[in-house]
Amino acid sequence: MVNESDGTEAWLVVGKVVAAQGLEGELRVVPRTDFPERFTRPGQRWLRRAQEPARAVQLLSGRQLPGRELFVVRLEGVGTREEAEALVHQDLLVEAGDRPRLQEGEFHLLDLQGLQVRLAPQGEVIGTVVDLIHAGNDLLEVELNGEPTRRALIPFVEAIVPRVDIAGGWLEITPPPGLLDP
User: Fold this and answer.
1) Which of 11, 2, 5, 74 is nearest to 43 (CA)?
2) Are 126 and 144 in contact (CB under 8 A)?
3) Which backbone phi and psi does 91 adopt, to 5 degrees?
4) What is the pLDDT of residues 13-49, one digit of tens each?
5) What residues contact 125, with CB distance under 8 A and at least 6 apart?
């Protein structure tokens, strides 16, 4: 997801701070990326609340909670539970240019957002990808045409999404019966 901070830098949201962890300033972060090193490799990151400018922070360490889609991170200058709680609901960011190399068949969320969703084999455009939800299996959140308040969740698996054309601005789906029903 690209957002503008002060108009000069673009950001990728890689996680959302959801809670304090323990009493010593650690934070629980829900990932918005498939790259765990975003939370485990020390270095500069940024935090941003709502539409405020992003501010630089140093990630000191991080670990994934066993069996959960949740990371616990430690940031420089955050040493108490109260300091950690003050950061809840902020986005954890990296610079938009800091994109890991992908294997064939892998995509960045940023590349999927905004793609037209077409039904195979006719190519009828039925909506637009607005988000990718990590829920065990990745789900494309699609805003359906003509119904801006209606969205469909489509499993992002090859059997249902056989073709993705980033350059062309579309992806093709072969939904099983009932997947798009209201």
Assistant:
1) 74
2) yes
3) -85, 140
4) 889 999 999 999 999 999 988 788 999 999 999 999 9
5) 116, 117, 118, 145, 170
